[in-house]
Amino acid sequence: MDYAINPADGARIAYRMTPAGAEAAPDATPIVLVHGTALSQAIWRGFGYLRALSPDRPVVTLDLRGHGRSSAPHEQTAYAMDLFVGDVVAVLDTLGLDRVHYLGYSLGARVGFSFAVSHPHRLRSLISIAGAPGTGHGAFDRVFFPGALDELERGGMAGFLAGWERASGHPVDPATHAAFSANDEVALAAYMRATQRDSRVTDAQLAALPMPVLLVAGTRDPERLRAAEHVRAALPTAELVVVEGATHSGTPREPETLAAVRKFLARFGD
Which residues form the AB hydrolase-1 domain (predicted)? Predict the structure, then answer.
């Protein structure tokens, strides 16, 4: 594991570069993969993205602040969206990468939309999986279960996971349970509180995005499906792939999602 430093506040951001396969073009554009809430860069190996994408291009994975092996401050002010974007920029600058494809899941996609607005020249393309250009008050209650954030603050991660299982009617799968349990719960709650107050990317900003955009959302993730349709309305050149039967947590795991990503990237020739 390597680390980059966000110069805005000194946060240490964990990242890993997986080199391209021997048959990849020497000038293949790298792709950056950014995880969702309470997860880490480890998901991309578990979901098969590293194995599928690295033969064709270098793959960069990272842990956003408050997640994985990166710095996990407890202050809500440390989770402003411009600092999340700065985490990604710090990794790219450390690696000397001027321009990349960007793929984000959930939180990673939210960061990607802001990154695309503030640094459009650094993105060859933007891929949003179960993402939205804004979070908004109550977002985590809607994604997880009513009272999710309050339960995290009151009962810690054990209480949060128990509440999630009660609300869903089935156990959280072992991999997700382990990933969530590995978090600093105070830092995670601070992040959740802070991001609910962040201003969303506007329709005018979406309409002005110059790079190709792929949106993927599941039919059993209605809030993020509506968000994807909203982005498509503001940016008609964006491509929308709807995955039948996919939930919010299930969308990145669906073979159809990864197939759509590979098909999208294959069009670029770099």
Answer: 30-146
Contact by Cβ (8 Å): 2, 16: yes
CA–CA distance, 146 with 149 (Å, rounded to integer): 8
CA distances from residue 212 to 30, 178, 264 in whole angstroms, order as listed? 15, 35, 9
Sheet holding 100-105, edge to edge: 2-5, 12-18, 59-62, 31-34, 100-105, 123-129, 213-220, 239-247
Q: What is the pLDDT of residues 188-205, one digit of tens each?
A: 999 999 988 888 999 999
Which architecture does CATH list for 2-133+199-266? Answer: 3-Layer(aba) Sandwich (3.40)
d(CA 140, CA 144): 6
> Is residue 229 a contact partner of residue 222, using CB atoms and an 8 Å limit?
no
Amino acid in the structure at residue 174:
P
For residues 21-26, average pLDDT: 93
> Domain ranges in the chain?
2-133+199-266
Instruction: Tell me the C-alpha distance between 17 and 140, whole Å.
Output: 31
